[in-house]
Design a protein that fits this description.
Elements lengths: L21 H8 L4 E2 L11 H11 L10 H10 L8 E4 L1 H13 L5 E6 L4 H8 L3 E6 L1 E3 L2 E3 L2 H6 L5 E7 L11 H8 L5 E4 L14 H5 L3 E6 L12 E4 L2 H8 L9 H12 L1 H22 L6 E2 L6 E5 L7 H10 L2 E2 L1 E2 L9 E5 L3 H16 L1
Parallel strand pairs: 1-13, 3-4, 3-7, 7-8, 8-9
Antiparallel strand pairs: 2-10, 5-6, 9-10, 11-12, 12-15, 14-15
This protein binds pyridoxal-5'-phosphate.
């Protein structure tokens, strides 16, 4: 009998569907909405970056190179030997795709600390891998990393441990001693530093790369640098490891415009500093303005978003999110956990958006 097309599908692809970021689609469809949901930077690219974009847009008929110039610059910035310590991706999401394809076979396991960014699970499952989620510990109005829990979750099938630092959505950092414990297991350890610039490179763990070959650090220009739409991310690793991961790289994955714009942005120290100062000031203002609401748990954040738990105040996160949406603000929620259904997260927006967010939340809680 003739086979059906579904009979030809890779078994672990069969149950999967396309990831749809409906909130982002909605924001593009209705530009009047306040995009306070995706941890984007509210500030547009600097004039310097825009100039580079225009220059290379006029050369868009040409293929990009393999990014030797920008990779060399990134290596130097991070005190690594050279371009071979750096792999470029279409955002750090693509970097995760490459790392996972390098280490995972169907049935292998990736350990993540939850709640966390969704891409690790998505890219793991596309390869037939199994995601193992170790929950953070919710104690004294804080969500704490659980390195012990991660170590206890290791099995012979564990091929990758991934930890975001600071974590999305909780906004806090893991202790260096805990990263060393994880690095010492020898298992490929990905430290996702997507938001590191908000607290400064001094908080980075790139120094572990020189001591532990299994440590890989990932970064992105989507956040503090404010270039999410250009899609530029990178990884830093031991030369041998980075070049093995680069074997999975789709040639010419990063376009000419993104590559050169990234080089300009990386060199624009003032541009970065302005964005970081703006964000950190606005983040503090949001937290201060909402800190008096009885029962509302606000998680201290070192990134460009703030997580809230309104469960102890007797409110549901989904009610807050739909109330805010009626007032044109898009927020992000999460499924019930730790016995609470009060989760919501806001991304720092423009000054006017932040003031409006504070007004809307106060209004909701005064109802
Ligand atoms: C922790 C973390 N890592 C990585 C990313 C991916 O960013 P990009 O693919 O734009 O580089 C995000 C985006 O929200 C994130 O929160």
């Amino acid at each position: 009998m003739k086979k059906q097309i579904s009979d030809y599908l890779v078994p672990y692809i069969k149950p999967l569907t396309m990831y749809v970021s409906g909130h982002i689609d909605l924001a593009w469809k209705k530009p009047s909405l306040k995009r306070m949901m995706s941890n984007e930077n509210p500030l547009p690219p600097s004039k310097k970056v825009l100039k580079t974009v225009m220059k290379y847009a006029s050369m868009a008929n040409r293929y990009p190179d393999q990014g030797i110039t920008v990779r060399t610059k990134i290596a130097k910035m991070n005190k690594l030997h050279g371009a071979e310590n750096v792999v470029l991706g279409n955002g750090s999401s693509e970097i995760y795709d490459m790392i996972f394809r390098t280490f995972l076979e169907p049935g292998d396991e990736v350990i993540q600390q939850t709640p966390c960014f969704g891409i690790y699970k998505l890219r793991c499952e596309v390869l037939g891998g199994k995601i193992i989620s170790v929950p953070m510990i919710y104690r004294d109005k804080k969500l704490l990393y659980d390195a012990e829990g991660i170590i206890n979750a290791i099995t012979p099938k564990t091929k990758i441990i991934v930890v975001a630092n600071p974590n999305n959505p909780t906004g806090n950092f893991m202790e260096t001693a805990d990263f060393i414990r994880l690095a010492k297991t020898g298992i490929p350890l990905c430290i996702d530093e997507a938001y590191i610039e908000y607290e400064g490179f001094k908080k980075s763990h790139t120094k572990l790369i020189r001591k532990y070959k299994n440590v890989i650090v990932t970064r992105t220009l989507s956040k503090a640098y404010g270039l999410a739409g250009l899609r530029f991310g990178y990884l830093l690793g031991d030369r041998e490891v980075a070049m093995k991961i680069a074997a999975t790289l789709l040639p010419w994955n990063v376009g000419t415009i993104s590559m050169w714009a990234a080089l300009t942005a990386l060199g624009d120290k003032k541009g970065l500093k302005d964005r970081v100062n703006y964000n950190n000031g606005e983040r503090a203002a949001i937290i201060k303005a909402l800190s008096k609401i009885p029962g509302l748990v606000i998680f201290p954040s070192k990134a460009n978003y703030v997580l809230f738990d309104s469960g102890p105040a007797g409110k549901k996160g989904e009610d807050i999110i739909s109330f805010a949406q009626k007032k044109d603000i898009i927020l992000r929620g999460d499924k019930p956990k730790y016995g609470s259904d009060g989760w919501f997260r806001v991304t720092v927006g423009s000054k006017a958006e932040n003031r409006k967010f504070v007004r809307v939340i106060k209004e909701f809680f005064s109802k």
